[in-house]
């Protein structure tokens, strides 16, 4: 009986899959709308100043960050579906190959690292003091280094188990 409960309870993970897909759609649509609003604002203004260029750059960086969050959400949805819900051994996407929880973790961390770097670029444009940039850069670099170390350790453990 407990086995049946555990077997069927995996279908509760449909909720995080749907939630991740809704998050992806919402973030991507919102990012696209931000780009449209910013572009429309610039073109209707009729003049472009250096301040407008800086604002456009900031919008681009923030939008890319949002699109990366959408990508993470999609990878999570596909990964959870593949690992826990589907009974077939088929791949939903040939480019998103997920065979275990470590694969999903590595893919998510990879996109998080890129999102952190893009987020740091956004902070550079907002920073008033060079020390703030340095402080934020050091913190971001330490976190990215820790995540890269985690990927290396998990990846080497996975390679050892595969061979």
Notes on the protein architecture:
The protein is mostly helical. It has one domain (2-162). It contains five helices and no strands. It has helices at residues 2-9, 14-45, 50-85, 101-126, 130-162. α4 (101-126) runs antiparallel to α5 (130-162). The mean pLDDT is 84.
Please name the defining characteristics of this protein.
mainly alpha, flat
Estimated radius of gyration: 20 Å
Taking the sheet with the most strands, its summary is: none
Low-confidence stretches: none
Integer tally of domains: 1
User: What is the residue-mean pLDDT, rounded to a whole number?
Assistant: 84
What distance separates the N and C termini? 37 Å
| Outline | flat
Percent helix range: over 70%
Order of helices and strands: HHHHH
